[in-house]
Amino acid sequence: MEMRVVSIAIDGETLSVDGDKPTSYRFTERFWNLVEREDRDLTPQELESLGKEVFFNIFSTRERKERLNKWLEEAREGTPLVFKVESDSEKIHNIPFELICNDEVGFFLKQRDIHMVRDIPAVSKPIRPVEKDALRMLFILSLPLETYREHPLDPLEELNVVYGALCGGPGLVEIDVEEKASLTALERRFGRKAYDIIHFSGHGASGGHLVMEDDEDQAREKVVSLEEFSRRVYLQNPVLYFLDACQTARSSPLSPSLAYHLYRSSPRAVVIANVLSVYDHLATEGAKLVYQGLLEESRPGLMLKDLRISLQKDWWKPVIFAANPDRPLFLLKLEEREAKETPRVVHLPAKIRVDYVYRYPLVRRASDLIEVSNHLVLHGVGGSGKSILAGYLARFFRGRFPNVLFMDLREYPTPLGLLKGMLRIMVRQGVVSNEEAQKALENVEDMAPEFALDELLQRVMGSLRGRLFLVLDNLEGVAQERDGRLKEDWRDLIAQLLTRDGLFLVLASRLKVYQDDRNPLGNTMTVGEYTGPEVGFLLNKLLRAGKIVEGEYLLRKMGDIEISFGRHPLAIAHLAKKRPEDVKSIVKDEEFRGYLEFYREYFDESPQETQRLLALEYPFSHQFLEHLVSIDVWSVLQERLGVIEEIGPDIWRVSPVIRTYFATHYPLDLQEMGALKEDLME
Fold first, then answer.
1. Of 3.10.20.90, 3.90.1300.10, 3.20.20.70, 3.40.50.1460, which CATH number belongs to 130-339?
2. Is the pLDDT of residue 334 over 80?
3. What CATH number has the domain spanning 346-526?
4. Is the pTM above the cut of 0.85?
5. What is the rounded distance in angstroms from the CA atom of residue 315 to the CA atom of residue 600?
6. Given a cut of 60, is residue 657 above it in pLDDT?
């Protein structure tokens, strides 16, 4: 499809349209005041007034208006019209040209066949598209803990959008994720591999700076200038930068925009960025709309068309810098890739629930372990979100692990049954044929269990192409003894899994996983209650999803909930769903009880010590606890079950959800309460 590209060349004093005689222009003081305003969103009327002022400054002569009418008629007949704003001035690129409008057309870019790009004439860009078998993308997630606390967001939402838009085809895009977005980490990353697409997700800062992680302390944020970024990070000629962060296309008098600088310094790259702050969910939706059409239409002039049409708010804020709007960025060999593609297996639980949120500290700690190890153990009180976190991690690291199997051991009570279940899933997803699977099962039918296990494991792993992320959920009661030790047959299987190349194993259990009587499996991570910022993020997420009643209930009841249950994820989710006036009433809920009844048999072994522990309303020191419970009881409740939590240096408490649920089952009578008070006084 041909397109009409119309140049709008503008300098500090004059502008010309499609090479005509330059005319002077002038934007009013009110115009600049509105453009530079950051304390609130502009009203529709203000946006329209800005757009009309842009229009009248560009199409200021009768001849230009006549030519415009001709171009608009061509667009209505199917020839796309692309305005190309050309200027070497950074300040001029702050002008929201994308708002151009008049009374006859309305906002030009809200029409399907009218588009706009920007260019810097002083930069010479090649016009030859890159021929590729596949594209490589780096998704840079910049979310330091300090930033997350102030501006929480769920990066999986945007990451899933990118995966869904670009990974649905036959292996056309390979996606790496860099979630440790410090300059040092990026230096290492770009030193190892070249990328075609760089996607930056996070927060920008005024003047075109990026908010990144501090090299010395990953929890702290560091505002990085474009000079430091370009000095430290050498990029090997990507064809597209997508800066999905606020204000990355905006400059200030003392600090030019990062988008402008990247476009100038990169030999061939097109740059997409936001000229003003964009709401996180709108930025994610915008990225989805761009990437969905990228593989079929990579001409820069048309790359933002679906975004402009579909978004009702902030549609004008993304801008694109491109020298050749009518030339594709790359040519992909689709037919060859389709012939080469090998099926992958992806078996995951249901989509992450709206009443669960991204848990930054846990994902970051898991990320550290994934880089240096081959396994991770998730341990925590029932309902703390271990299973959901395991599924979240599988989705989050999908770029590193093309194959994912999430297996709930309650459905597969034996190691052999587990491997057979994995094989059946691979048959359903086309990785293994039904005939191959049947033959493999017949071969092991008469074998001794240990040989059958080895044979089936070889068959499963040998059928996969690429790395496998394997989750074994709910080990307690199936693969573990009561004290947490792995049962012998499961210990043998897990030992074999841990020796396999290309496999990362996640184990999740309410009971800490031990290899033998004394040695827990390494890389154990405790999954506890939500943090304060995570609760705030959950409330925002519920309200944004239209669950107003649930969100308002939690806002009203959060104080009572924290007293009775802490910030226990399952308790909060159930209360948001049921919304009882008495928050403690959910302890009678059958599903809620199912998560906590597991602990009863352990408490029944030492009822008197349990009574004393559950009667303690306030935190206590370890030294104080020695007077109340034996070392053996402490070892079981704190070390193996995790129901006694350390909330500060030598400050301990019984998990609030455990205490509230079991307190009425193990009450102290008056005499016992008196004895406890005497011990407390001593």
1. 3.40.50.1460
2. no
3. 3.40.50.300
4. no
5. 56
6. yes
